[in-house]
Amino acid sequence: MVNKSKIDKLKEAAQAVRDLNRNYWDMRRDNTVGGDDYFHCKANYEATSRGHIGEKVAERLGNAKENFDYYYNQAWKGLSKQEAHKDRIHDRTVNKTGRQREKSGLYKNSKEGCKSFRVRGINDKY
6-117, superfamily in CATH? Predict the structure, then answer.
């Protein structure tokens, strides 16, 4: 494997962050009840497609967000500690699935790789 320069690594990390951010805002715009698993999977798939750095960015940022949501869900959404923990584990699992599906080489793109998470109502453009 070719050793990437620091510039290439930074570019890959920035692209992965952009993938995560774009999918977050796509999910918000789409606003389909139950559609968040699809967008979690898709964001992690796309970030991982950038390479090893993209995969690590997706994993670390995803875990940090789920840790934040654990407390947010208790304080602002009224979830119990057990419910918040269950939500955190679920979202981390979906994120991991997106990363694994990209690395499997079995899918041609994120839309196909995350199809099992699509729910009725998600706009076809996503």
Answer: Serum amyloid A protein (1.10.132.110)
